[in-house]
Each structure stands twice: as structure tokens, then as C-alpha cells.
Amino acid sequence: TGVEEVAKEVRSGKLVVTYKLTGTDLKEDQTEIKVKQGMYEAAEWLYDIEVSGAGTEQTVTITFTPDVIEATYTVTFSIAGTSENAGTMTVTVPKEGELEAPEGQTLTEVTSSKTEITNTDRTVEFTLKGTGLTESTGVKVLNQYSSEMQMENKKVEGTGNEQKITLTFPENEFDATYTVSFYANGNTNDIFT
């Protein structure tokens, strides 16, 4: 069993770190993640954890909220009910207002395969062009009431200068309008809609 950091991005003023766990017979409800600041467990409002996947590989996404001072956290990954430790990672979160997106990723153009969908054909492919594009390109979808939608079926292909992102929209009983925005480097101020 092992762990590695696969992505780090700034999203909506928070630091989002993605880790990949490898092992055998991994289960979402048995993966334990402990976040400590020094000797003590970090306050729960400072981070949020999402675990997905099972079997030989899992993805763990931890969203850190900046505090009034810079903080270094120790993140330990283990299997519930065992002494097996998958690994320990360290992450430093700058203080509030000093979190900056990593350099190198820019987004210059977005096109879509269609602008209208039906309940029988709800999938849209978007083509993004830019430089240094990675799988961590951000997507924000708002409905006509300006509420953010969680897109469960997001598929990302390609990196570098061109990328295709496929989204499957939910079924609707009535006509609905969506605004889809993309951003690089977790910078939601640099949005293409």
C-alpha cells in the first residue's frame, strides 16, 4: 500500500490536494485519513475529505481552508481496524489571502459540440485550447437559478495545448438553461464561459 500526491490546485480560495492510494482490496468506508497540525488533530473546519474508488486504487481529495496564519499539516493514510499505514504526506497552506495558483496553465479558447440538449442526448463535449492544460482544469456549471450543479459524469481527455471535457447533464422535466465555465490554475477569476 502506498500514497502519492497527484495534483494541487487553488479553487475558490482554498487549496485542493489530490492523492492516489494504491493497495489491495481498498474500500471507501475503510480508508482512514488523519490531518494533524503539530501534535494535535487539525480543527475540522480547516479541511474537507473526499474518498472515491475501491480495489487497487483510490483517489483522496482534501480541500484545505486557509487560516489567519500559515499552517503545515501532516496527513496520514491508513486502513481502519489495522496497523497498516499507507503513508504520510505533508502540506503547507499559506495564510488567508496569500494563496496563489500555480504558474504555467492558461486557457485561451472554449468551444462546444452543441448548445442544446434533450433528455435522450444529454452529453456535451467541450474543446479547450491553451497552454499547460492538465486534468485539474476547473469546471463550474450553474443552472438558471445561479445554483452550482455537481457534475458527476465529467470525463477529461488530453493535456498540453488541447483538452476535451465531456459533461453529462441531468434529466429535466422542464426546459433548463445552464452556464458552463472553465478555469485554469484554480483561478475562478480567469473564467471562460
Characterize this entry briefly.
By secondary structure, the chain is mostly beta strands. The chain is built from no helices and 16 strands.
Give a written overview of the molecule:
This protein has 193 residues and is mainly beta. Helix content is 0%, strand content 58%. The chain contains no helices and 16 strands. It has strands spanning 2-11, 14-26, 31-37, 40-41, 47-52, 55-64, 71-79, 85-93, 106-112, 123-133, 138-142, 148-149, 154-157, 160-168, 179-183, 191-192. The strands form four sheets. A four-stranded antiparallel β-sheet has the order 1-2-6-5, with no helix packed on it. The protein has a four-stranded antiparallel β-sheet with strand order 4-3-7-8, with no helix packed on it. The protein is globular and about 55 Å long. It starts with a strand and ends with a strand. The relative contact order is 0.17.
Secondary structure topology:
Elements: E1 2-11, E2 14-26, E3 31-37, E4 40-41, E5 47-52, E6 55-64, E7 71-79, E8 85-93, E9 106-112, E10 123-133, E11 138-142, E12 148-149, E13 154-157, E14 160-168, E15 179-183, E16 191-192
Antiparallel strand pairs: 1-2, 2-6, 3-4, 3-7, 5-6, 7-8, 9-10, 10-14, 11-12, 11-15, 13-14, 15-16
